[in-house]
């Protein structure tokens, strides 16, 4: 949480993030498919591939100069329990629309210019913007068990609700049992859960992107 707060905070005390500003979003376990090779297509989590460059820039929160506006709305992470090289990213792509080569590439292209496999050892964690251009690659016979989570910033309801709620978190989050946690951590978790429920209630029908958005 300390790293997440640092990543989400601005450059002065007025924009510093505290636990009171954080909303629980995702907390899943990414498990390897060991019987066969499996891979996901290149994607951004909340910017559909059908958008043109102008639509992508808008969805990424870029201004007319192509620069990112304001502070981040979320921090997402993967924390590996075993060796993990399943995440592939194009560094810096969360700050720009796709290039012509990226647009023309096969959705399952094995290579994109500048891409990197993210190597994590047990206990390593990587933080990233979920709108970075990325994919998952699972190799036959290689076990993967990686904790996958994110927290968001209070007040970004519409911006984050569609991205978070499409994963069905609202169907189970009220059943989470935080009873085994240390008192201060339990209080933090329960407060962040309450804000997630509130976010889902206030967001209304978040829907999904259409071709015209």
Can you describe what's shown?
By secondary structure, the chain is of the alpha+beta class. The chain has one domain: Sandwich (Jelly Rolls), CATH 2.60.120. Helices cover 23% and strands 20% of the residues. The protein contains five helices and eight strands; from the N terminus they run H-E-E-H-E-E-H-E-E-E-E-H-H. The strands form two sheets. The protein has a four-stranded antiparallel sheet, with helices on both faces. It has a four-stranded antiparallel sheet with strand order 2-7-4-5, with no helix packed on it. The longest helix has 21 residues.
Short description:
The protein has helices spanning 2-8, 53-59, 100-104, 157-165, 183-203; strands at residues 22-31, 38-39, 74-80, 87-89, 116-117, 125-128, 134-138, 145-153.
């Amino acid at each position: 949480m300390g790293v997440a707060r640092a990543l989400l905070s601005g450059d002065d005390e007025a924009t510093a993030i505290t636990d009171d500003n954080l909303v629980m979003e995702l907390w899943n376990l990414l498990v390897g498919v060991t019987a066969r090779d499996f891979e996901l297509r290149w994607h951004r989590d909340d910017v559909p591939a059908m958008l043109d460059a102008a639509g992508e820039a808008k969805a990424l929160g870029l201004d007319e100069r192509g620069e990112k506006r304001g502070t981040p709305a979320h921090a997402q992470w993967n924390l590996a329990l075993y060796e993990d090289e399943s995440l592939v990213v194009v560094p810096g792509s969360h700050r720009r629309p796709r290039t012509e080569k990226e647009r023309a590439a096969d959705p399952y292209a094995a290579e994109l210019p500048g891409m990197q496999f993210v190597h994590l050892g047990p206990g390593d964690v990587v933080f990233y913007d979920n709108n970075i251009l990325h994919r998952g690659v699972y190799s036959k016979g290689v076990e993967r068990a990686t904790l996958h989570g994110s927290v968001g910033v209070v007040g970004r309801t519409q911006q984050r609700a569609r991205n978070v709620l499409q994963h069905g978190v609202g169907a189970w989050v009220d059943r989470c049992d935080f009873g085994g946690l240390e008192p201060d951590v339990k209080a933090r978790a329960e407060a962040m859960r309450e804000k997630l429920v509130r976010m889902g209630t206030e967001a209304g029908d978040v829907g999904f992107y259409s071709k015209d958005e």
